[in-house]
Write a structure and sequence with these properties.
344 residues, 53% helix, two-stranded antiparallel sheet, alpha/beta
């Protein structure tokens, strides 16, 4: 006889879990419990000690902590993207945590779900660190706009040599030297400059630490990716943070789809309609690679020739195709363990 199995569908929330349990021959129970995975483990050990455990839940704000805990117990765990769960029209009008848990359990048992990659805790933390850096970038942009807005509102003209996107130390010193008519105006500007200095310092620290980590712990992959034109230390750090181990992808097409540098397409009855670039993506990583494509085009004659060949078309569409070429190069250097050499 085969080993008996149980299937657990889990609907995770901040304070509660909704649990649906089926065995391989019948339904067992659907119940609610406090958000503590150890309590579920104790329940399974008490009632199904000799069973093979299969658990599924959809990813959300609670992340992969539950999945990693259950994998360490020896359970079979699948985490699914909510957008990839097949749902009937009835689901739009009848939805509850109980129904969600039951649906997940039975779809998993019937083999109708496809899981996503479960990262290690270290990979998760590195990804969070990269995204924190991006938040710092947005905050820096915001405080700079606030400083310029105050100057404009008070009719203070910025000298022509400083009126650009680059904020030099000389420009900041010029702002500090402005004489305000009241102490309140000076205090307002000084406070903004303190915030700017703090954010800029933290931004540089996070950027340097990310690059330092990958130079130390993933030295081979880091320098293989750095050999590709347009891939600086920030882009390489973003690639390794968002993707983890690139070798887990079976081919270049799968990698491109995961990043989201592929076109959308709708074809029916012999009629095809282009939908532009797919909305399913790693948005932060995709933006970095597309920005890297503009730099790579200036440094690589082969990419320059490709751009000239398509000159006159939509430049944004062409640069996305160049970004796709960079992803193919990225896949190639990692797979072959050979640095990229520019073909002059």
């Amino acid at each position: 006889m085969s080993t008996p199995r149980i299937y657990i569908g889990l609907d995770i929330h901040k304070k509660t879990y909704r649990v649906h349990i089926d065995t391989d021959i019948c339904h067992h129970k659907n119940f609610s419990m406090s958000a503590d995975i150890e309590l579920l483990y104790e329940y399974v050990q008490k009632h199904f000690a000799a069973h093979e455990v299969h658990l599924v839940y959809e990813i959300g704000c609670c992340g992969f902590g539950v999945a990693r805990y259950c994998l360490n117990l020896g359970w079979h765990v699948m985490v699914v993207n909510p957008s990839d769960i097949p749902r009937s029209d009835k689901y739009q009008y009848q939805k509850s945590d109980k129904i969600d848990a039951r649906m997940l359990c039975r779809l998993y048992r019937d083999g109708q779900l496809k899981g996503i990659h479960i990262p290690t805790e270290q990979e998760d933390l590195l990804k969070l660190l990269l995204r924190h850096r991006n938040i710092l970038v947005r905050n820096l942009r915001r405080i700079k706009n606030q400083i310029k807005s105050q100057l404009l509102y008070m009719s203070i003209s910025v000298p022509e040599e400083y009126d650009n996107a680059t904020w030099s130390k000389a420009f900041i010193e010029w702002i500090r030297a402005i004489r305000w008519q009241s102490s309140e105006g000076a205090l307002s500007m000084e406070s903004k400059l303190v915030v700017l200095e703090c954010l800029h310092k933290e931004f540089l620290h996070i950027t340097n630490e990310l690059a330092k980590y990958y130079r130390t712990h993933h030295k081979e992959d880091y320098y293989l990716l750095r050999s590709i034109p347009g891939f600086g230390r920030l882009v390489v750090s973003a690639i390794l943070s968002e993707l983890g181990d690139i070798r887990r992808f079976t081919n270049e097409s799968e990698l491109s789809n995961y990043i989201g540098v592929v076109p959308g397409l709708h074809s029916s009855g012999g009629t095809e309609k282009a939908l532009g670039i797919t909305p399913r993506c790693r948005s932060l990583l995709r933006s970095y690679i597309i920005e890297a494509a503009w730099i790579a085009m200036r440094r690589d004659p082969e990419l320059q020739a490709y751009y000239r060949k398509h000159q006159g078309k939509n430049s944004k569409s062409v640069i996305v195709k160049i970004a796709h070429k960079l992803i193919r190069r990225m896949w190639s250097v990692i797979r072959n363990k050979q640095p990229y050499i520019i073909n002059y």
